[in-house]
């Protein structure tokens, strides 16, 4: 295998290892720190830019390997038709080797490109999931604080209601006392009038309307 296909295989292995790290179960805090570092680090951004350029070359290799695979398949078919079943063993071996190597290179570069797309999409999906979990935690804390505030306000309302009921009870008692005092004053005036009429004297203590 040539050096550029060897580098492609190494890149594919690195992509597989990175994918396993991204989808591996880990604590929320550790995963948040990891993805925050990967999304904000300048070094990681430079590495990602270099990988984008390398994937362009991998795409060129994929197109070349695809063409070679079609050519090797066509040559093998033509060799079978030209020999009418009496093909040379060495020729068949060479054609089979060419076909195998071209298919291997096609699959290698194709899977490398495909896994790069899957890896990028998985990274952003997990990053969005972390942001959603963070927003959910903030909303949960806000709702809990609002519940505590509303509970305190409800307690204040209950206290005010009790105070209002007590004030209304005092007003009712005061009205009853006023009525009792007025009735007692009327009775006193009536008794004073009867007494004065009976004795024929005017009471100096009689109340005037």
Q: What structural category characterises the helix and strand content?
A: mainly alpha
Query: How many whole angstroms does the radius of gyration measure?
Result: 49 Å
Number of strands: 0
Number of domains: 1
- Order of SSEs: HHHH
Proportion of residues in β-strands: under 5%
Number of helices: 4
Helix content: over 70%
- Give the termini separation: 127 Å
Shape assignment: rod-shaped
Describe the main β-sheet briefly: none
pLDDT < 50 runs, ≥5 residues: 202-209
Mean pLDDT: 78
Pfam families: Bap31, Bap31_Bap29_C
Keywords: Coiled coil, Endoplasmic reticulum, ER-Golgi transport, Membrane, Protein transport, Transmembrane, Transmembrane helix, Transport
Transmembrane segments: 7-28, 34-63, 107-127
Family: Belongs to the BCAP29/BCAP31 family.
3D structure, described in words:
There is one protein chain. With 209 residues, this protein is mostly helical. The protein has one domain. The chain is 89% helix and 0% strand. The protein has four helices and no strands. The protein has helices at 3-23, 28-40, 42-83, 89-199. Helix 1 (3-23) packs parallel to helix 4 (89-199) and helix 2 (28-40) crosses helix 4 (89-199). It starts with a helix and ends in a 10-residue tail after the last helix.
In short, what is this structure?
This protein has 209 residues and is an all-alpha fold. The chain contains four helices and no strands.
Tags for this model:
single chain; 209 residues; mainly alpha; 4 helices; 89% helix; rod-shaped; disordered C terminus; transport
Topology:
Blueprint: H1 3-23, H2 28-40, H3 42-83, H4 89-199
Helix pairs in contact: 1-4, 2-4, 3-4
Membrane topology: Multi-pass membrane protein
Organism: Pterulicium gracile
Main location: endoplasmic reticulum
């Amino acid at each position: 295998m040539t050096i550029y296909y060897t580098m492609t295989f190494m890149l594919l292995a690195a992509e597989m290892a990175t994918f396993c790290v991204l989808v591996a179960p880990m604590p929320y805090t550790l995963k948040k720190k990891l993805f925050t570092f990967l999304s904000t680090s300048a070094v990681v951004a430079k590495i990602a830019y270099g990988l984008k350029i390398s994937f362009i070359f991998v795409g060129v290799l994929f197109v070349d390997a695809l063409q070679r695979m079609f050519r090797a398949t066509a040559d093998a078919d033509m060799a079978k038709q030209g020999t009418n079943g009496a093909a040379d063993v060495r020729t068949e071996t060479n054609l089979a080797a060419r076909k195998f190597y071209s298919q291997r290179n096609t699959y290698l570069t194709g899977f490398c490109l495909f896994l790069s797309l899957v890896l990028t999409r998985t990274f952003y999906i997990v990053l969005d999931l972390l942001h959603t979990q963070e927003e959910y935690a903030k909303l949960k804390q806000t709702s809990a604080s609002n519940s505590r505030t509303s509970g305190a306000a409800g307690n204040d309302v209950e206290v005010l209601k009790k105070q209002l009921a007590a004030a209304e009870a005092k007003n009712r008692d005061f009205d009853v006392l006023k009525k009792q005092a007025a009735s007692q004053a009327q009775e006193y005036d009536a008794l004073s009038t009867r007494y004065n009429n009976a004795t024929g004297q005017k009471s100096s203590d009689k109340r005037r309307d």
